[in-house]
Amino acid sequence: MTEEQSDNLTDHLEVPGSILTRLVMRLNLARTHDNAVLGSALLFIAVTFVPILVLSVIDGFETGGLVDMPLHEDLITLSRYLIAAPILILSDRLTRPWLVKAVLRFLELVDKDEIEAFKKMLRRIFQIRGSALVDLVILVVCIASSFFLKSYSMNIEVSSWQTGIAGGVAALSRPGFWNTFVSQPLFRFVVMSWTVDYILWIYFLWRASRFRLKLYATHPDRAGGLSFVSAAHSQFCLAAFAIAAADASVVAQLVQHTHQELESFYRLGLVFLGVILLFFVGPLLVFSPTLLRTRLDGIISYGALCHELSDKFAGKWLRKRGDKEESILASLDPSSLADLNSSFSTVLTMRPVVFDHQFVILFVVATCLPALPLIATVIPLQDLVVEILKALT
Fold this sequence. Notes:
The chain is mainly α.
């Protein structure tokens, strides 16, 4: 971001894209950011999944019956390279516009005496996200991890497309070698890059909550005017779905190849759901202290105003009056009192959080959705749908 752009954030806000998106743009494979995001997802699949599929077919792992777990039955690999990572990449098309809108809205809410400090904080975050050094460090860590971490699929004691026999000793097959030293590092890179983006967003929210914000307890959104934060943050439900899909594939593979009972993962599933909600919903609680103070100040100030108006209203209209005095039906006093009472009711119902129950339900559904095919193997689909509808109504 240039100095001119940084001094005029309200007119133009440019959020740095991921390294894959920037690479696609530099290679002139796309002209717009949205097309570059789509190109990044396709490029990821072309580099990570297509080679191991071709090599598996050539080496006879797919159709030759040489292994117990060919590539098309490796649910973990399929979910990671065809579902989880591409969705994390494509989610940028959904989250970016909303995050930009949220940042611009904060620029309108921050006290004018702190607006320059707020813009300085924004520039610092954008510099971190656009830093090639940060991307390089992530890439190096992901590549180095290939020498220490083994594919989870290989931990399941069945013969798979990832291993072969060389001189009577089990060793990485050609597709297994590509998966270990190319596909898996790139998958970890996508996950870690997305995680860095998310952490920077959470850091921004935390810093924004420390500025003096022009919030009003009478705002109809019941969140002091901050409901736009949950609207922007709700777009991360797609990422929650991707993470849950990768996790569900691990359980599915264990059930399929180790014959463990699906019911044995019930408590683990609840813990996973709790962790996901803590990860995606918990960060929004940084605004709760501000909202609680705003509500308390509103109760005191609007309560005093309501008392003053009620006292004047009672003094004027509850005393005995003559026939020639003003009629209450022709006066605006009752309307003013009703409007103020309505505002005070809004203050009393103000939430201590920026989100509502529908926001939480959205992430619960996004997290549980990938597990439905698994659960359907135990519970008939029709009965499962009925139980879900009962839970939501």
